[in-house]
Fold these 3 entries.
Entry 1:
Amino acid sequence: MTEPAFFSKEWAADVRDALAAGPSAAARGGKLPMYWDFFDRIRSAYPASWALGCRDRPAVLGEGPAYLVVQWGGGTVTRCQVLGPDEPLAAT
């Protein structure tokens, strides 16, 4: 199995899956349970979105900058996709 190209649709799907899965058991084991209780409570009510920009994409993915847009709602990722330079970017 090959890794998806950076800032491709497949890469965005992998990012979505990793964010939805949350921290690994090993990461959770490194902090007190009350920290993760707080983390889960905040995550369940987090309504914002993120955008991560990339100025130089591989030519096979298109010219110009691209943005990974991640929308959160109800404790999980509701949208995770790569947008090109001509697509509307709505992130809070």
Note: Residues 45-92 form one domain.
Entry 2:
Amino acid sequence: MDVGEREFLVAELVGSEDRLLRAVDGLSVAQWNFREGPERWSIAEIVEHLVVFEEFIRGAVQRVLAEVGEPEKRASVAAKESLVLGLAESRGTRFVAREAARPMGRWADAAELVGELKKARARTLAFVAEERGDLREHFFAHIVFGDLDCYQWLVVLARHMDRHLRQVEEVMGDPRFLVDGEKARG
């Protein structure tokens, strides 16, 4: 990845983490665990999903980079850049999380879960700072978009967090999100 791509990616990763952490800061236990409905995730479940997804995707990128590149795919995947960049704005399109990235109550304590989120993102940022391979020549499939290159996958991590920030804001916007006599900020 070139210097401009690296700077863009770092800014996206840092910015999305900051926005999410500000949104969930100071929530009560009841607010953290509030669900809009039986098929909807709580904020705790959303954050758990983000941690697990981050680790899963970064690990997949690292594994794929160890394989032989496929430069012949570059042109077809380049056209998907707008899909990746628009991921956060596409809340109207629902995706079904991979089984491995679904929340299962891995962390019961909000502070511990937020700590895990920060550690996962720090590992991703360290990887981005250190990686010197050609991320644009290594690919794996998104469940909807098909093949994406490894650079696009790292952008997906930032946009994915922003997408779920919108979901957190939807949860907080539910009129029933009044808990303990106070409404969550957001």
Note: The first strand starts at residue 139 and ends at 142.
Entry 3:
Amino acid sequence: MSLIALTGVPGTGKSTIAGVLRGRGETVYDLNELVNEHGLILGTDRRRGSKEVDLKALGRLVKELDVEGQRIYLEGHLSHLLPVDKAIILRCHPEVLRKRLLARGWSASKVRENLEAEAMGIITQECLDALLECSEIDVSNIKPMDVVSSVSRIARSKRIIKRYMPGKIDYFEEILKWY
């Protein structure tokens, strides 16, 4: 069995890619749906306007999804914090991401928080800190079907593919433009 985190900050295309994977017959779980269906919301972070999720309970639930020999994708920006075999991180240039998040009607502070997280590579760093096998795909200017092809290639691979090694995508310089 292989549990694969399909992760990235909001707006990087996780749901779009997950939808295409489902359409191809892959098993994909939306973590937001699992959290809501199983009542795993502990509360709300009022300052940030986000839900606080019971990650321990979600981790136990994810382990129950274990099906021998089946590849399972877990789609969500918290998926890499769960007991997964590998993480595929969708990355997006902050200016492209800004447009996507503003189109969702997000507040300036929420947009800024997510742009900073993306520019600093927070999710990649969390994966590396957890010693999790991870790969990065820059989705800024490529078609969803090309992203799906890369995701599938990474998911099937027994090793990290050099092209997708973490650290090759670096948006940190973008932060300097903001201050």
Note: The chain has one domain: 2-178.
